[in-house]
Amino acid sequence: MTLDASCIFCKIVRGEIPSFKVYEDDKTLAFMDINPGNPGHCLAIPKFHSENIFTAPDEWVAATMATTRRIARAVQMTLMPYGMNIVQANGPGAKQSVMHLHVHVLPRGRDDGLLLNWGLKPGNMDEIKALAERIRANLPRN
Ligand code: AMP
Ligand code: ZN
């Protein structure tokens, strides 16, 4: 596992800053986004510091996508959203704001007006915590 001392997501992996975890295994971590585009917005990351999809080794990308699908299924079961986007940004031009590879699991509401660059608006931490618990309860068994 290679982590970066100053990277905010590596700090979450190391437990140096708090997060609302929904899933963890030896290679990946999934947690709630604290500026949710919609309720239930989660992120899946590798426990390996790579900036983006271009530089991350295949095995870490594969593990991150498996975790993405796992939490997507749990979010789907928890919230039954109108739709769900799986989004991954590379570089400032794509509005990537955290330079550690991550995949967004983003539930959609009917006519929610959410644009691809949905902006960062802090969520209600009690609501986010409660949703993390509900999503964890719905994780698939395998
Ligand atoms: P992106 O803009 O695609 O790089 O996405 C980065 C995401 O990380 C944004 O949606 C932020 O809200 C989210 N984020 C940043 N810091 C934290 C944090 N400490 N805990 C949870 N989510 C975070
Ligand atoms: Zn990192």
Task: Summarize the structure in words.
- This protein has 142 residues and is of the alpha+beta class.
- It has one domain: 2-Layer Sandwich (HIT family, subunit A), CATH 3.30.428.10.
- The protein is 30% helix and 18% strand.
- Strands 1-2-3-5-4 form a five-stranded antiparallel β-sheet.
- Strand 1 (21-24) and strand 2 (28-32) form a beta hairpin.
- Helix 2 (58-79) packs across helix 3.
- Bound molecules: adenosine monophosphate and zinc ion.
- Residues 4, 7, 9-10, 49, 100 line the site of zinc ion.
Shape: globular
Number of helices: 3
Enumerate the spans where pLDDT stays under 50 for 5 or more consecutive residues: none
Query: Would you tell me the structural class of the helices and strands?
Result: alpha+beta
Strand order, main sheet: write it out.
1-2-3-5-4
- Total tally of structural domains: 1
CATH homologous superfamily annotation = HIT-like
Architecture, according to CATH? 2-Layer Sandwich
What is the CATH class?
Alpha Beta
Bound molecules: adenosine monophosphate, zinc ion
User: Would you report the number of β strands?
Assistant: 5
What value does the average pLDDT take?
Answer: 96
CATH topology (level 3) name: HIT family, subunit A
Rg, rounded, reads 14 Å
Order of helices and strands: HEEEHEEH
Q: Tell me about the largest β-sheet.
A: 5 strands, antiparallel
Strand content: 15-25%
Distance between the termini: 23 Å
Helix content: 25-40%
